[in-house]
Specification:
heterodimer, A: alpha/beta, FAD/NAD(P)-binding domain, Enolase-like, domain 1, 5 domains, 5-stranded parallel beta sheet, 27 helices, 31% helix, disordered C terminus, B: mainly beta, Rieske Iron-sulfur Protein, 4-stranded antiparallel beta sheet, globular, Rieske_2Fe-2S_sf (chain B), Nitrite reductase small subunit NirD (chain B), Rieske_2Fe-2S (chain B)
């Protein structure tokens, strides 16, 4: 290129272009202008950093030690010289004087302009917590920040990164590679929530944890702790403290608008520009992260390039116009491939196509609406990200390739027939392995089907294909369809529409594969939705709670409202409250407290329940904690009348008063209730103890019923007084109260561990058969003891009164309104 | 002159997957939802079926299941999903700098004076 010099004759006629910002946007804009018309402008660039333009995106590899600064320089000193660009580095612009058309630098240098380009980029957002200004608290924005981090990392020790977005995770990765022990603190429940959905965010978190980082999600920073004038740690709002020798603040960026604002240019979140990147002053343009275009601010690099092109087109006299960008993110975090594009939050008429491959750690989700891709999230295998993004940007009709879409470009476009997954399976050779767990080939599966196995279950039991982890279920289903056509028999009912697994499969695999969190279950069991539905979430929450007592943390957002608010929702949206009355016993103190609550909270009705206690109706959700505090004060706890849990133990008066009573049924009932209360179960569970065969407590229509007789106790199970009345079956007869308790605990645990969620004992018993239940309990002389021991272990973590916690202010967010909107007085004037 | 958008507080006050309620004096109570994907929506807190409080339902994807009779309602459009028919009014929401805003004119009912003028 001919390098024009300032002595050119033409030079005097050139317009003067001043660029504020020597970063990626500012320099790219200049490159685009030079490419179109190298003679048009005399150019001066002001940069705040004392160096040439470098690729800011590559600061992470520099931090990680994978690249040097020299390797990430975009424009060398030679480039500025060759293009006769004057670079003023390390002397940032202090203000703009639009009347005189000059900029004034910090050192006092005055530079006139004909056209001014603002490319100030963005500033790191600093969360306003005490200690944010301490030495050792850094941001992650420029090379100086990287140098500070490297200096700290040289001494080893602990690093805390606040912010689990892209930037924060890259900082964490770099510091970790440099030998520091890193903790990432993230406010939201999942990492990179703006780019990834919950499922992918969870996979990323587990992988980073496996690599030695500590990831704290849902963690709110309260303050940065000081010691000897330097940062020493971070304290979270929950009181937890994390030691730190360096704290990196990477919670986000904000468009840098100070210069534009003080110059009186129109700004909102960013500097307002039109489609030609012109601000409210026709001689001032702006480009990059500092601008707001059509309401949007961008923090990714691709839109900057597009903006720079439109800007250069405009300045060189052939305006094109920038129309905004659809963005995608493809990145590697610690070598983990992640991709996201478009709107993957779903929407009306949008459908998710989800593929999960647990063995390879792959999660793919493509969101389709009106036969077009509107969004995509890929984790673990991002090879097809660009293809999906291309289809998305071009809004191409994908109906023809829809069935094979999720398998990627090679598969979907591999010829008409191959777009059908069944055809792909048909094309496999007979010795291709279908089931990796049990080593079953395609030939063997087809042979089994031809020999009469007409359903998935039949295939599973006869040749073991898909009988273990189940990840080949889809392949086996395809083979069934190919071999039998319409004769395929529907398989067992799946847990819900989100999965091809049954309740039994899910329960078994949670234990076998030691799945301990809901996103983990959904990933390992190939859920076809990103976060489940109102059917599977409560079921999985229960299964996990049952499988991992004391370890699994109950998920409130997967609880039905009654179990979330510990009261029964009524048709008008109010709640009913039932305090526990052990074995149906009460006393004046309790009755007075209940009467007081009824009056104090204007409860319109009190009713005696079928379970021998009192039900207070019409309580508002915001009054519940206060009601509970009053009831707690009188010694009463939650009756769990709202739960899939132990409800009541109904008793008759027994031998203490009744002339027919054979045993102390009331006392035994109280003991049983004290042992079993608080237990979560597949469905509600009712117990009764009758003092003689007259059975006044109606024990033979309960889930577990005790009928006292002269010689001991008959234990009955599987009764129900509901929609379909079912009398109990006799389980066994025992002779002491201790044996009653032990058998009760064992039976409940068997039900807890085996039944499907929302299956009462009556249908469960009919499905499994009484003989099966007896075999589980009595075939091995030690079985009852083992089951009962597991129940008692689980109860150690269950018997906390949920009302007491709420009454003391726990989770007040569930009860209180955000605020009350009162139309302002002036509006009535 | 009142701001077009009503600031109802920080995003952190509603956990993802949950909802909160906002009573309106002289108007309909509003349910504000935070999906697991991190988006915010607001609907009148009444199921089109039997006026169940949608704020108390289980949130999944961008829909909520009513706690009374399991109708599924789209948080985006307020429409009942599946075979059910019905719709509940939605209130435009925006999130800016960590705070949630509702479109004021969709929240605050018309004043008596405005009603007279209309």
């Amino acid at each position: 290129m001919n390098a024009p010099t300032s002595f050119d004759k033409a030079s005097a006629l050139r317009e003067k272009l001043v660029v504020i910002g020597n970063g990626m946007a500012g320099c790219r804009a200049v490159e685009e202008i030079l490419a179109r018309d190298p003679e048009r402008f005399d150019i001066t660039i002001f940069g705040a950093e004392p160096r040439v333009n470098y690729n800011r995106i590559m600061l992470s590899p520099v931090l990680a030690g994978e690249k040097t600064f020299e390797e990430i320089v975009l424009n060398t000193a030679d480039w500025y010289a060759q293009n006769a660009i004057e670079l003023v580095s390390g002397d940032p612009v202090d203000h703009i004087d639009r009347t005189r058309q000059t900029v004034v630098s910090r050192s006092g240098r005055v530079e006139p302009y004909d056209k001014l380009l603002i490319a100030t980029g963005s500033d790191p957002f600093i969360i306003p917590v005490p200690g944010r200004d301490l030495p050792g608290v850094v941001t992650f924005r420029d090379l100086d920040d990287v140098d500070k981090m490297l200096a700290a990392a040289g001494q080893g020790g602990n690093a805390v990164v606040i912010g689990g977005g892209l930037l924060g995770l890259e900082a964490a990765h770099g510091l970790s590679l440099r030998g520091m022990k890193v903790t990432v603190i993230h406010l939201m429940p999942t990492l990179m929530e703006r780019q990834l959905d919950e499922a992918a965010g969870w996979l990323l978190k587990t992988e980073l944890e496996r690599r030695g980082q500590t990831i704290l999600t849902g963690a709110d920073t309260q303050e940065i702790i000081e010691k000897d004038g330097h940062v020493a740690g971070v304290r979270l709002k929950d009181g937890q403290e994390i030691a730190a020798d360096i704290v990196v603040m990477a919670v986000g960026i904000r468009p840098s608008t100070r210069l534009a604002k003080t110059a009186g240019l129109d700004c909102e979140r960013g500097v307002m520009v039109d489609d030609h990147m012109v601000t409210s002053d026709p001689n001032v343009l702006a480009v990059g992260e500092c601008v707001q275009h059509r309401g949007l601010c961008y923090g990714l690099v691709a839109p900057l390039w597009e903006m720079c092109r439109s800007l250069a087109d405009h300045l060189t006299g052939s305006p094109s116009g920038y129309l905004g960008s659809v963005t995608s993110t493809k990145l590697k975090v610690s070598g983990i491939d992640v991709f996201s594009a478009g709107d993957f939050s779903g929407g009306d008429g949008a459908e998710d196509i989800v593929m999960r491959d647990a063995a390879r750690g792959v999660y793919k989700r493509v969101v389709v609406k009106d036969d077009r891709i509107v969004g995509a999230v890929l984790y673990g295998d991002t090879a097809d990200g660009n293809w999906y993004f291309d289809l998305l940007k071009k809004a191409e009709d994908i109906s023809e390739i829809r069935d094979g879409l999720i398998f990627g470009q090679a598969f979907a476009l591999g010829g008409g027939a191959n777009a059908d997954p069944n055809a792909a399976v048909a094309a496999l050779s007979d010795d291709a392995e279908i089931c990796g767990c049990n080593g079953v080939s395609k030939g063997k599966v087809v042979e089994t089907i031809q020999a009469g196995a007409c359903s998935l279950d039949a295939v599973r039991s006869q040749c073991k294909a898909s009988a273990s982890c189940g990840s080949c279920t889809g392949l086996v289903e395809s083979l069934l369809a190919l071999t039998l056509g319409d004769e395929v028999q529907a398989g067992a009912k799946t847990l819900c529409k989100c999965t091809s697994f049954t309740h039994d499969d899910a329960r078994r695999l949670i234990v076998e594969k030691e799945l301990r969190a809901m996103p983990q279950v959904m990933q390992e069991l190939h859920w076809t939705t990103p976060d489940g539905c109102a059917s599977c979430r409560p079921a999985l929450n229960y299964y996990l709670l049952c499988a991992w007592p004391g370890e699994y943390e109950d998920d409130q957002k997967s609880r039905f409202v009654n179990e979330r608010l510990h009261a029964n929702i009524q048709k008008d949206g109010t709640y009913s409250v039932v305090p526990r009355m052990w074995g149906g016993l009460t006393n004046p103190r309790e009755l007075r407290a209940i009467a007081d609550v009824v009056e104090k909270y204007d409860a319109p009705m009190v009713k005696v329940t079928g379970g021998q206690r009192l039900d207070i109706f019409g309580i508002k959700k915001e009054d519940l904690p206060a009601v509970w505090a009053d009831l707690n004060a009188a010694g009463m706890v939650s009756g769990h009348a709202y739960g899939k849990s132990l409800r009541t133990v109904k008793t008759c008066v027994g031998s203490e008063w009744c002339r027919f009573g054979t045993q102390d049924s009331t006392g035994l009932g109280v003991k049983i209730e004290q042992m079993t209360w608080g237990s979560w179960m597949p469905h509600k569970f009712k117990i009764a103890v009758s003092g003689c065969p007259r059975n006044c407590a109606e024990a033979t229509i309960k889930d577990f019923g005790v009928v006292c007789v002269d010689s001991g106790y008959e234990l009955h199970v599987g009764g129900n007084g509901g929609i379909k009345v079912r009398a109990t079956d006799l389980l066994c007869k025992v002779s002491t109260e201790e044996e009653v308790m032990e058998h009760c605990a064992a039976f409940i645990q068997l039900y807890r561990e085996d039944a499907h969620y929302l299956e009462r004992t009556a249908p469960w018993l009919e499905r499994k058969g009484l003989e099966w239940i007896k075999a589980q309990m009595f075939a091995d002389p030690d079985a009852v003891r083992r089951l009962a021991a597991r129940f008692r272990h689980s109860q150690k973590f269950m018997q906390d009164d949920p009302w007491a916690k709420r009454a003391s202010g726990d989770r007040s967010d569930l009860h209180q309104h955000l605020a009350t909107v009162r139309p302002a007085q002036t509006e009535y004037a | 002159m009142q701001a077009k958008w009503l600031d109802i507080g920080p995003v952190t006050q509603i956990e993802p997957g949950m909802a909160a309620t906002l009573p309106v004096i002289g108007g309909e109570e509003i349910a504000v939802f935070h999906t697991m994907r991190g988006e915010f929506y607001a609907l009148v807190n009444k199921c089109p079926h039997k006026q169940g409080p949608l704020s108390q339902g289980i949130v999944h994807g961008d829909s909520v299941t009513c706690p009374l009779h399991n109708w599924r309602i789209s948080l985006r459009s307020g429409e009942a999903l599946g075979d059910d028919q019905g719709c509940v009014p939605t209130i435009p929401v925006k999130v800016d700098a960590g705070r949630i805003y509702l479109l004021r004119e969709a929240v605050v009912p018309p004043t008596p004076a405005q009603r007279k003028a209309a």
